[in-house]
Design goal:
It is built from 6 helices and 13 strands. It is an alpha+beta fold. The strands form 4 sheets. A 5-stranded mixed beta sheet has the order 4-13-12-8-10. A 4-stranded antiparallel beta sheet has the order 3-7-11-9.
């Protein structure tokens, strides 16, 4: 007689037949599910995809699934945005809003400032023709408004950001110290003023010239009357030698405007420059991107240009370190004048 304990809860191995039966039931359920899907119309399938009341799925996902994927992308894009923000902050620490990183020879602008003119035709960016009709008020008022849109900050200094930089009335005897900005005396442009319509109505137009800004650029002056370039116009040579007697007043970037061809010179007539110094005073340079700084301007008045003809005019800036090439307009500016 054998003795032993009887296991009241014996473990039974899983039945292969039961497992097979589960697979059959699942396949059957899947079949009926697909059969039900086939019976649905296209609109009903779309509605069911958007919201399935049986499985409580929204666009194929349950609320918990949407919460998990939303949390994942929130963290992912949050970390990506933080990384970009850190990179931009580090990069900004290497820049100064007032001082360019690349200057002079290292910059794209280079060290040769260009010359610009105003007013410019507003109906064609590529045109340089100033077509003036002094007897037509609509015409000359249009040119006056065009010019005033550029000169507005000069006549209304409050429109520029001055910050804490002191504005100084400079002269050849009172030069600005570092940190100061020289103001512009618009009275020196007389008779080229808005009160006189810049003499557009008299067919004696005033054209304003401006030297492009280059940070830190220091002009080298033609300030020796005995050492002037050969190709400088004789009128400007005589002006430097005889009209300016004080040596310090020769520290200017000189300006000359002539006809491009002998015929243009003949039709151009007499030319006047304001300020009478005929150039940009040297105490406005170097340009240091200070708040409140305004570029000096030279007003050129063509007193009696011949009407009915297109006159080609070239204005040139004169300094030892301003290179001149007529082909690419380096150191000069070209425009046409037509008086009707």
């Amino acid at each position: 007689m054998t003795s032993g304990k009887i296991d009241n809860n014996p473990k039974k191995a899983p039945s292969r037949s039961l497992s097979k039966q589960d697979e059959l039931l699942q396949a059957q359920a899947q079949y009926f599910l697909e059969l039900e899907e086939r019976k649905l119309s296209k609109e009903e399938k779309i509605k069911k995809f958007i919201w399935d009341p049986k499985t409580r799925k929204f666009m194929g996902r349950t609320s918990s699934s949407w919460a998990k994927i939303g949390l994942f992308y929130l963290i992912f894009y949050g970390m990506l945005a933080a990384l970009v923000a850190i990179c931009m902050w580090v990069f900004s620490q290497t820049l100064n809003p007032r001082i360019p990183k690349w200057r002079n020879e290292e910059s794209i602008i280079g060290t040769n400032p260009g010359l610009g003119f105003r007013p410019m035709p507003d109906n064609n960016e590529e045109s340089t023709l100033i077509w003036l009709q002094g007897s037509n008020k609509t015409n000359y008022e249009k040119w006056k408004a065009n010019l005033m849109s550029f000169l507005d900050t000069y006549y209304t200094p409050g429109k520029i950001e001055k910050g804490n930089v002191p504005i100084k009335r400079c002269s050849y005897d009172e030069l600005p110290i570092p940190g100061q900005v020289c103001d512009i005396d618009v009275r020196k442009w007389e008779p080229c003023s808005p009160d006189r319509h810049f003499d557009y109505h008299r067919n004696a137009p005033c054209i304003f010239l401006k030297l492009n800004r280059i940070y830190g650029w220091v002009p080298e002056y033609y300030n020796d009357p005995n050492d002037l370039p050969e190709d400088m116009p004789q009128q400007l040579k005589d002006h430097i030698r005889y009209n300016i007697t004080r040596p310090e007043e020769r520290n200017n970037i000189w300006i000359s405007c002539i006809g491009e061809n002998p015929a243009d010179n003949e039709y151009l007539g007499p030319v006047k420059y304001y300020p009478s110094i005929q150039g940009f005073p040297g105490y406005y340079y170097p340009y240091m991107n200070s708040e409140g700084y305004l570029s000096p301007l030279v007003a050129v008045q063509f007193k009696r240009p011949t009407s009915g003809l297109v006159i080609n005019i070239e204005c040139r800036a004169w300094a030892k370190n301003i290179k001149y090439h007529r082909h690419d307009r380096s150191g000069s500016v070209h425009f046409e004048l037509l008086i009707d």
